[in-house]
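Listing S7. Sequence submitted for prediction.
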Amino acid sequence: MRWLRIEKGYSDGYARRVLGVGKSALNRAWKRGEIAQVPFVELPKGGEAYPHYASREQIVRLLNTDMPEHIWAYFLVRLCTACRGDAARDLQVFQLDRSARLVRLNPPGRAQTKKYRPTVPLLPALAAYVDQMKPASYVVNWHGRRVASIKTSWRKIRVRAALPVWFVPKTMRHTLATWLRQRGVPAWEVSGLLGHHAAGTTDVYAKFDPKYLGEARAALAAIIEDLARDVPKLRDLLADGVSVGSVAATNDNGKTPEGLAVTPLRVVGGTGFEPVTPTMSR
C-alpha cells in the first residue's frame, strides 16, 4: 500500500482495485488446487465515488466530433441505456425486444456478476439506429465483428473534442445518472437503470409492467431530445424514430398477439417525440 500510494501516487480507490485483482487471482488459484493456501489480503476502504460529470456543452461537443461509425454507435448505446462500456460493446441486435420495448443488456447464457446488467427501456433513437445499420450481430461493430476496445480511438477523439483529461467514456454514465436525479427521477429508478441492484425472483416480471422505469424512460428520452437540438445525427434518428414508434406488430384492435396494448409515439410540446408514459399523462 505504501508503494502504491507514495511511489506510484495512486488513490486509495485505485490501490484497492489493484489489490483486489491480486486477491481474486490467489483465490482462483486456490480453488483450482494450484496453491495449498491463500494469504489474507486486507483491502483498503473504498475511495470516493467518481466525482466528475460533464456539462451539456461537453456532451454535445463529443457527439458532434468526427469519429468512426463504431465509436458513434458505442456512445449512442451508452447514451440511450446508461450502461457500462463492456455492456455496450457486447450488445447484440437480438437483445432489443421490440414488442416489450426493452433492451436486455445481459444476453441469455451469460452469468450476472457484481456489475449487474439490467433490462432497460428501449428508446426510439436506439431502435431507429439499429433499423438503419448494416446487417451485423453486434450493434457496436467493426466490419461486423465485436469491438474489443475503444482506447486508441478515444484518446484522439477526446483531444479532437477539446474535452478535459478527466473526461473518460464512463463520464457519460455518471453524467446521465446526475441529470436524471436533477430531473427528479426517483433514486430506485436510477438505481434500476444503472444496474446497482440485482432483481429478485418477482422482479423478473416487473419489466413487463407498462410503467417499468417509466420516469427514468421519460427523463432519459427528454435528455436525448434536448441534446438533439444541437446534435444533427441525433435529430435525424429521432425523425426516423417516428416510423418505429409502434415497435410491435398489432392487430386491428391495436394490440399485440399477446394482447398487450401498443403505445405509439407522440409529439410532446417543443421537445420532440416521446413514448407516452404514466408520468407524462398526469
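Caption to Listing S7: primary sequence and predicted C-alpha cells for the chain studied. Residues 243-282 have pLDDT under 50 and may be disordered. Residues 51 and 78 are 19 Å apart (CA to CA).
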